[in-house]
Amino acid sequence: MTRRPGFLVYGLLTAFLIGSAAPLYWSFLLGSHTKEIAAQGVPPLLPGGHFWSNAERAIATIPFWKALGNSLLVSTVTACSVVFFCTLAGYAFAKLRFRGRGPLLVFVIATMAVPTQLGVVPLFILMSEFGWTGTLTSVIIPWLVTAFGVFFMRQYLVDAVPDELVEAARMDGCSQIRIFWHVAAPAARPAAAILWLFTFMQVWTDFFWPLIALPNSNPTIQVALNQLQSGFFKDYSLVLAGTTLATIPLLVLFVLAGRQLVSGIMQGAVKG
Amino acid sequence: MSNSTASRGGGTQTVPPTREGSPTASGPAGRAPRPEWRQRLTRLDVRLSPYLYISPFFLLFLVVGMFPLAYTAWVSVHEWSLIGGKGEFVGLDNFREVLGNPYFTKQLVNTISIFLLSSVPQIVIAVVLAALLDNQLRGRTFWRMSILLPFVVSPVAIAIIFGSLYGDRYGLINELLGHVGIDPIGWHTERFASHVAVATMVNWRWTGYNALILLAAMQAVPRELYESAAIDGAGRVRQFASITLPMIRPTMIFVVITSTIGGLQIFAEPRLFDETNARNGGSDRQFGTITMLIYDFGWQLRDLGRASATAWLLFVVICVFGIANFLLIRRVGALGGER
């Protein structure tokens, strides 16, 4: 409904904005006051000057830098792998003709509705068999290529690459992989960027499987936060300083690429 | 040849040199390549490449998706220890034990209660929010980004932050309630209150995300529909009820189904909301969920057999709710369309 919105609309949106930001501010606020002030409930509404000293204590309590490095590594590797394999598969589903294309695509879509988290027990047994439990490999492998990614890239490439271009390249004797690399891959770039962001975020925020697969000595950042909370649950200044610190990387990503995230969600919705 | 292909960017320019260039590249120097052989190779390339490109997904899904789901059934009918591995075949004993466990019923009810408290208000608010954003706003991107902010905060961090906001004694929420004359609520100790608290975390993270999906669907509604409805004298609310809602029904189904699958597997939020050392969802598991029970059976009690049985039961619950939701939304949408 396109009408010039009034104060009511802006007022309500502002309320939502405050609601979105307030818990993050609260986290920073308590994290910036001393342990004593944080323990007594609602602190002064302006930040205190103790954020860094609290953060240093948090960093000393858990293997913070190692966890951050692990999360960065796992998220980056997975995101790159997902983008590569999903673009390849999405391109095949969108532009190449082969037997069983339709049913196979339906199968891919159907797997999105399968709650694979429920397979954690065998997945754990499998990873133990390979000797991967406790290593980052165990949290990277299950995510290397996703159904959502394949579908997302397929939807994008259907329109983004003209059939004539693929056909012309083929007539000229171009091999399939070169057509992919020189025709489809450049066209896929905008969608690939969005898929990369999403996968990175998903892997970064994942908790259930890393908690099972990784030991406390080699955690991702989420598993490390879990340790922080369990050890010092009364000292909210320390816990929230650590939590705030651990949230900063994704906040930075949000500031840099939030626009792409928004358009990615909206694109995925219309076509999905 | 390699120089001309090195200039990337356009697809078509790079194609012609290949024809002349490839013989020298593929065959040993001096020998002319046999055309049949090349033709056969090309045909093979055209026929097999698609399968090659899609195979990584299917291979991986087979290993980390399909096999584990099926194998869960195998584990669930055995005695199976986390440390010792497979034991005797026990038939349906694990299922019987899980179903007879009082915590199973309790945590199943908790899961459903938290799910309803998080999904119903979330969808309603997301629709309202999407309708607000579906205006000619100044600073469109800013407002859209603002509601997506919670989405980048991990469930673990959210649970820690809200655990503090909902502190039973010193939390901000109880403090604010005190100002309007409401006694402090035991957000961690009281069963229903704790469900509300956990549901709030889910709502906080996902409402904006779902609002954007619904907004995209709303913007795809042809504007002429509203114009003609306005000419017919339909008010804003009426237009929304009889045009917008029916038109975004497929998207609603999508949102509801995905939130069902995710919502019933909730784990991080209730686990980290718990401040007791057992981490099982409160001292009496008043907000423990089924996925937490899987973790408890498998990795705290080290009984993978019972963990697998629980996983299968949760799978059944998810299927039932998924189908029920689908039918419900279809009904509701259809009613809206007839009016």
Structure description:
- Chain A: It is a multi-pass membrane protein.
- Chain A: It comes from Nocardioides pini.
- Chain A has helices at residues 7-31, 35-39, 51-61, 64-95, 101-112, 120-130, 137-140, 147-160, 163-171, 176-205, 208-213, 221-231, 236-271.
- In chain A, helix 5 (101-112) crosses helix 8 (147-160) and helix 9 crosses helix 10.
- Chain A has 272 residues and is mainly alpha-helical.
- The relative contact order of chain A is 0.16.
- Chain A has one domain (49-271): MetI-like (MetI-like fold), CATH 1.10.3720.
- Helices cover 76% and strands 0% of the residues of chain A.
- Chain A is built from 13 helices and no strands.
- Chain A starts with 6 loop residues before the first helix and ends with a helix.
- Chain B has 339 residues and is mainly α.
- Chain B has 2 domains: 17-58, no CATH class; 93-338, MetI-like fold (Orthogonal Bundle).
- Chain B is built from 15 helices and 2 strands.
- Chain B has helices at residues 2-6, 16-26, 35-76, 93-100, 102-133, 140-148, 155-165, 172-179, 191-219, 223-231, 236-247, 249-263, 268-273, 290-300, 304-338; strands at residues 78-81, 85-89.
- In chain B, strand 1 (78-81) and strand 2 form a beta hairpin.
- In chain B, helix 3 crosses helix 15, helix 9 runs antiparallel to helix 12 (249-263) and helix 14 (290-300) runs antiparallel to helix 15 (304-338).
- The longest helix of chain B has 42 residues, at 35-76.
- Chain B is flat.
- Chain B starts with a helix and ends with a helix.
- Classes of the chains: A mainly alpha (272), B mainly alpha (339).
- Chains A and B meet through helix 1, helix 4, helix 5, helix 6 and helix 9 of A and helix 2, helix 3, helix 5, helix 6 and helix 7 of B.
